[in-house]
Specification:
single chain; alpha/beta; two-stranded antiparallel ribbon; 33% helix
Length: 283
């Protein structure tokens, strides 16, 4: 959770009350305020590749199940594919636009939520769980809220609900992966934030690194972040020096020569991966 000062009074953070605790003055081990293993320059390098390429690197450094973990399970829609990939750290939010009671329950929630977002170092991606799913009816996102979040250091959003003002959001430079478009905001209000959320079948926690584009998104937990850039760079270069030239340089060869070249390149690809990571790869 965000850094808070010593106190013997209960605090209201992330949409929930926390009991008094005089030791609650330092970020926990999984706090987004911890020093991050990747620099801003590292993130900009990751942004140069599409999300499938980042996945190829991630599968070499993770201990998780690469057939089940990390990526979105349900289909997403990238409404700004021309903007390319986005990379950032998750700040999380839950909304329920169909329920007007949230505004009465905590009329100051939006201000408190914005202060939370502002307290987290960027770049940030706002990951929003919509409790109305699958019957999503109102949008948190539009022209003004997109511009507000750009000012707070956010590069985009992944929302398991709708968006609106598509052209204006694009002009603001705020990328969105969402379920659909809609016309209204309904009773949208911040319900809780800085908490675990589930979007498109994937659990996301505050501080997770996210890489997203028109293919979907990849959630990289803190323990997999340090080696991600090197692994992605290696896997991309490995393809470019083995399998890709083998198939692109097939002009003038017989079919048997082409097949032999492909087999040789695949074997070399595997050897390179095994030598580097002691693992297999796509080929």
């Amino acid at each position: 959770m965000p850094l808070v000062s010593k106190t013997d009074q209960p605090l209201f953070i992330g949409g929930v009350f926390l009991p008094a605790n005089n030791d609650r003055d330092m970020p926990s081990d999984d706090s987004p305020l911890k020093p991050r293993p990747l620099s801003h320059g590292d993130l900009m390098q990751l942004k140069r590749w599409n999300t499938p390429t980042i996945y190829n690197g991630w599968e070499q450094v993770t201990k998780r199940d690469v057939a089940r973990d990390g990526f979105n399970i349900e289909e997403t829609r990238d409404f700004m594919p021309q903007m390319g990939p986005m990379v950032g750290y998750a700040v999380t939010l839950v909304v329920e636009p169909s329920n007007a009671a949230h505004r009465e329950a905590n009329p100051h929630a939006a201000t408190e939520y914005r202060r939370y977002v502002a307290s987290i170092p960027g770049p940030k991606i706002v990951v929003v769980q919509d409790l109305d799913k699958p019957r999503v009816i109102g949008s948190l996102w539009g022209e003004v809220n997109a511009m507000v979040h750009v000012a707070l250091g956010c590069v985009g959003t992944i929302v398991d609900g709708p968006i609106r003002d598509l052209d204006e959001m694009t002009a603001a430079g705020f990328k969105a992966l969402a379920r659909r478009l809609c016309v209204g905001h309904a009773h949208v209000h911040t319900v809780r934030w800085n908490c675990e959320v589930e979007v498109f079948g994937r659990t996301v926690r505050p501080g997770d690194l996210i890489h997203a584009d028109k293919h979907g998104f990849l959630v990289v937990p803190p323990e997999d972040q340090p080696g991600l850039l090197e692994a992605a760079r290696f896997m991309d270069a490995n393809e470019c020096t083995t399998v890709i030239p083998a198939v692109r340089e097939s002009t003038g060869r017989t079919m048997e020569e082409t097949l032999a070249s492909i087999d040789h390149s695949v074997a070399q690809f595997r050897t390179n991966v095994q030598t580097k990571f002691k693992r297999g790869g796509e080929w």
